[in-house]
Amino acid sequence: MNRRNFSYQLICGALLAASGAVRSWAQPATPDEGIDYRTLREIVPTSSPGKIEVLEFFWYACPHCYHLEPHLAKWKASLGADVVFRRVHVAFRGDTHQKIFYTLEAMGRAEALNAKVFDEIHQRNNPLAGLPDAAEWARKQGLDVAKFEAAWNSFGVQTQQKRANALVAGYRVDGVPTFGINGRYVTSPAMVGGSHVRALQVVDFLIAQERKAKR
């Protein structure tokens, strides 16, 4: 991915978010099934028994995922105790970025370093295109490179990748960012006109639907 194409993606992402913000203000409060979200034909098993599980399908190189981050941080802080939020990294255009995410997860550093991965790609125009680049980036973050590379090649990371790919297939994810709600629903900024705020409002609506179903 060259710098010119990368800059173009960022500009497009910013314009999409801006246009979506206008639409979200004008939309009715109640989301419409088939427009703002879709119901899955087959329920996807969750890994959070007794909780409402929300998944964010994302890709580090996606400019829309990058612009979603500040909205997502505020939204996560407001979640109830009955909701579990997890990220699922897709394997778009190869699995290097997916391996970075699950390697960081295996080391217990994903939550702390996700923002820095996004910044490295979108602010410093470093695509982190393979293990050598990823290992050098990890070294600069103060990580033990030997441990990073060991996790990268581990069976555990490979297993997490397979699980992520199975979830992508189960939720029928064909673009990011996309949200999967409790194995039953899917919504995304693209479905609601590009608005990150509106997409999270729809997620909240679907969480409420799941709460009612559990009563």
Kindly list the characteristics that best describe this protein.
disordered N terminus; 11% strand; 8 helices; five-stranded mixed sheet; 53% helix; Glutaredoxin; 215 residues; alpha+beta
Task: Detail the topology: elements first, then pairings.
Blueprint: H1 3-26, E1 38-39, E2 52-58, H2 63-76, E3 83-89, H3 96-106, H4 110-122, H5 131-140, H6 145-152, H7 155-170, E4 178-181, E5 185-187, H8 196-214
Parallel strand pairs: 2-3
Antiparallel strand pairs: 1-5, 2-4, 4-5
Structure description:
By secondary structure, the chain is of the alpha+beta class. It has a single domain (3-214), classed as Glutaredoxin, CATH 3.40.30.10. It has helices at residues 3-26, 63-76, 96-106, 110-122, 131-140, 145-152, 155-170, 196-214, and strands spanning 38-39, 52-58, 83-89, 178-181, 185-187. The radius of gyration is 17 Å and the shape is globular.
